[in-house]
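Practice problem 4.
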């Protein structure tokens, strides 16, 4: 039970990262303000993850930890949709959302709950995301300057000296949402499958409330390839299709001016195609042009869900 007045449930989505998941759950169990419940959405892992919660497994006798094992991999979006749906049925105040690679400082949620007490009108919070090498992963917390194009910009590193910074979008890496608002806006869009579901959900939150970045709340993001390094050298990634497609769908549903937003969207797509001719995509031009064509087309048609052509090699998701 939480030591503070406000309570929270932590939702953790995992797939085939048993060791990281163990570290992530340990960090949640060591919080200075404990979660009421930790819901682990096991996205049909094949690495023996379920053994952590059975028999003599590390978390088998932790009453706060509950594993929910999926019969198939729903993707990150489907996992978070399921986890949030379960969390909102619990009598709690807040719901945390994170993947299995988020390792929280012991006072992470104490800091967020303190900020929530100080700003009771705010229904969304997030902490500072730090990479294992010490860099701030600034693209995890962003602002929007054009609400028709929905172009996001990372919060500048210089702004992290402030106690709180107003943001417009966060990733599901230590996101914190008031349960009362979840009851109103619903759960993340499972049809996004992976990538972009957190951005779309942030926009639903922003339609009702500010979102605050609490810089004193910190977590380590043990991601394999930091997103802030993607631009250095292009490497094909099966997930990029979903990111592009889901962005198109998000603009169509959340642009402040639908007509102007659609016009800007076509301009953005044309510019993306133009970039495929630059040296960065040498050797991959045909591949990326095919991805863009399919992602843009499916996004415009509202064709969401899992696409069998864009999955990890050898995966049976």
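Answer key:
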């Amino acid at each position: 039970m939480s030591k503070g007045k406000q309570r929270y449930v932590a939702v953790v989505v995992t797939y085939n990262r048993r060791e990281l998941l163990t570290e992530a759950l340990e960090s949640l169990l060591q919080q200075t303000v404990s979660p009421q419940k930790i819901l682990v959405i096991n996205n049909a892992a094949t690495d023996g993850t379920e053994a952590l919660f059975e028999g003599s497994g590390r978390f088998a006798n932790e009453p706060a930890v509950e594993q929910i094992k999926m019969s198939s991999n729903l993707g990150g979006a489907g996992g978070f949709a399921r986890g949030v749906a379960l969390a909102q049925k619990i009598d709690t105040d807040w719901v945390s959302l994170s993947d299995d690679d988020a390792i929280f400082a012991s006072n992470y949620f104490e800091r967020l709950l303190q900020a929530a007490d100080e700003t009771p009108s705010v229904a969304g919070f997030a902490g500072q995301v730090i990479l294992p090498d010490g860099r701030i992963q600034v693209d995890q917390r962003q602002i929007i300057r054009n609400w028709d194009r929905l172009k996001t910009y990372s919060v500048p590193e210089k702004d992290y000296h402030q106690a709180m910074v107003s943001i417009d979008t966060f990733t599901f890496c230590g996101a914190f949402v008031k349960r009362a608002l979840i009851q109103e806006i619903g759960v993340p869009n499972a049809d996004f499958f992976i990538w972009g579901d957190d951005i779309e959900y942030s926009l639903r939150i922003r339609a009702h409330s500010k979102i605050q970045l609490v810089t004193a709340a910190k977590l380590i993001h043990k991601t394999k390839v930091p997103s802030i390094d993607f631009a250095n050298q292009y490497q094909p990634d099966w997930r990029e299709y979903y990111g592009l497609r889901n962005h198109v769908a998000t603009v169509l549903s959340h642009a402040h001016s639908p007509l102007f937003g659609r016009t800007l969207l076509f301009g953005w797509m044309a510019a993306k195609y133009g970039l495929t001719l630059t040296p960065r995509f040498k050797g991959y031009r045909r591949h990326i042009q095919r991805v863009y064509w399919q992602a843009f087309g499916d996004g415009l048609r509202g064709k969401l869900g899992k696409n069998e052509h864009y999955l990890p090699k050898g995966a049976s998701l």
